Amino acid sequence: xxxxxxxxxxxxxxxxxxxxxxxxxxxxxxxxxxxxxxxxxxxxxxxxxxxxxxxxxxxxxxxxxxxxxxxxxxxxxxxxxxxxxxxxxxxxxxxxxxxxxxxxxxxxxxxxxxxxxxxxxxxxxxxxxxxxxxxxxxxxxxxxxxxxxxxxxxxxxxxxxxxxxxxxxxxxxxxxxxxxxxxxxxxxxxxxxxxxxxxxxxxxxxxxxxxxxxxxxxxxxxxxxxxxxxxxxxxxxxxxxxxxxxxxxxxxxxxxxxxxxxxxxxxxxxxxxxxxxxxxxxxxxxxxxxxxxxxxxxxxxxxxxxxxxxxxxxxxxxxxxxxxxxxxxxxxxxxxxxxxxxxxxxxxxxxxxxxxxxxxxxxxxxxxxxxxxxxxxxxxxxxxxxxxxxxxxxxxxxxxxxxxxxxxxxxxxxxxxxxxxxxxxxxxxxxxxxxxxxxxxxxxxxxxxxxxxxxxxxxxxxxxxxxxxxxxxxxxxxxxxxxxxxxxxxxxxxxxxxxxxxxxxxxxxxxxxxxxxxxxxxxxxxxxxxxxxxxxxxxxxxxxxxxxxxxxxxxxxxxxxxxxxxxxxxxxxxxxxxxxxxxxxxxxxxxxxxxxxxxxxxxxxxxxxxxxxxxxxxxxxxxxxxxxxxxxxxxxxxxxxxxxxxxxxxxxxxxxxxxxxxxxxxxxxxxxxxxxxxxxxxxxxxxxxxxxxxxxxxxxxxxxxxxxxxxxxxxxxxxxxxxxxxxxxxxxxxxxxxxxxxxxxxxxxxxxxxxxxxxxxxxxxxxxxxxxxxxxxxxxxxxxxxxxxxxxxxxxxxxxxxxxxxxxxxxxxxxxxxxxxxxxxxxxxxxxxxxxxxxxxxxxxxxxxxxxxxxxxxxx
Length: 860
Fold this sequence. Notes:
The protein is α/β, with parallel strands linked by helices. 52% of the residues lie in helices and 11% in strands.
């Protein structure tokens, strides 16, 4: 009966594995046949598979044979003579199915990926293998590239310092390795290119993401942005840098660590107004000044050096809170980076304007099929399924896992905890057992290092400041008497191999000095030990003063401690404590998921618009029939004008014919018809007449300039206008996003309102693109008339661009932004809040997310 119940309520993961094992057996059955083939016959299998695929066989049909071929080729081509384990075949099948293969550290994810990579490369569409850093991309492209090249496939790698032509060649290969950032930024750069030959990517068919949780979850809240310098605000930030130290916590500002917000008190507002010599900090004219002040306040109170960022070579560099790595080339947005630069006394760089951006989430959702692999994904499976449609398959280990994961040791305060941890490290060092010590920040790793030096314990430190030595440090981390202090980066993507005699000492011991907000990050640290059946152990040292417990778990922990007792200076080691800590982590994980989900919901709106604009831009860049597109735009522009001034809903006597003529004249179009004649014409007839006149003008310019030169000119103008309008639209969307939360106080759903208003903004932008392009082409004046044809290719030197006044346009855009901001504010106090029972107090942070007190914001 028990066996029947177990089969009835079998673990879903076990059910999935049971479906895959028969395929593994079929691959194994082909091994003797593959061993009989010569190297050339094995290589010829690739062309055979390609022909069969073209003849209609699916990749699923070819899977068993292709995997068998790769396994045999691997043994012959790699220096190590790798042969895929059965569990690696399981992982490979899951990856081909577009799932996430959770494989423990040391189980050979890199080798497992070669199976689906080869199979999917048969289609000829290109396969992308995405890693988290250049070192792994280059290493794996050479290491695993031995297999692909042996089988006749080409392999490329995208590295940070490559030029466009080198990147294009890499993308043209059957298999392309690179980092998530390089793939994403290449996509953005392609959609900013002004020449077709500068395009490098050739589509998004199939991608395997190594360390998929790091890419799709940890980096999901930080979009990829290409930007350029905007206005110089360094003086403001330097001035605020002198003001902030004069403010006192609680009296002048209050910090909300949970929400990561800092707000001025009423007294603080008055003090700042006096220091700045202004009457009202919240006046519309001080909108930007107020924003920069908030950034400066946040930089001084919530952003911590060697935790959130480091200063290296005179630059502020962001430290990824999940990986512990420096995020090269990335800057905090909306002026926060400038505020930190001023705080640290380094050069304050100009604020930037966004030229192009995309989230990691939406970039990778462009692929026809997406798969991933990592040692830690099951805890986030719900998010992977809901956002990306990827299930997680936990692949069993090749050898039984025998690592001893001990319960947490909980101390009352940080100092007692650290002393106890150092005692443990020292004891294991004297014994000869290697220890990997995990810390959550650069500052913690350096503090621990100083204390170990005082005890004369030799050790290595691996953090964002010396990540260049990562491979060398990890290489020796499993040797006798080795002590390695590391942030979350901890050699992810590389194995810690045990030295001689270490297994007898208990293997590698992992000691965590603090629990991370995410269970997944803790599991990654544990996963450094116990690879391939090796012995090992892990334990976390925790204190009630740690941020996780202090902010999210104090109530539960305190209740348990009252039951089990707590003697000063002694740790508590109890499963109930460990469970309570994990509950606190789940609480934070759920909150972070909701934040990422909300970011994605809003970005999805912009992403649909991005797709439209980028497709339109790509068509302009590559088409040979650009004039046909211009004519369609021209027809739409004139049709809109007719509907505006000569609407069929009005009697002809109410038409604004004078306004219509002025509008046409603005496009350099003269209407050859008097008012009486116009009033007797059908709208289609008016449209046809104007279109013919405008097209004749364009054809004349085309003949004067030359067909090719005119097309190139029109293409350049169109791309320039699209880019300028899109950048302005991105700014408008950002401002809309910042204020849209206030709509909740008018009993409206902010996301729905965002969709409606962003649609209007988008329609306004696309209409403006059409108008500016048509107007510019019709108003181009060619110097020298017909003689230009003998003057060689057309250039800006022999053209006059009779465009609208740019400065006046910028003033209008700025005023429009101010009007939208004021409209948002006007809606705040019109109606009651949605949730009355939880209405905040006057001095509480405003729920709209503005960062202000409720009394000064929505409750004012």
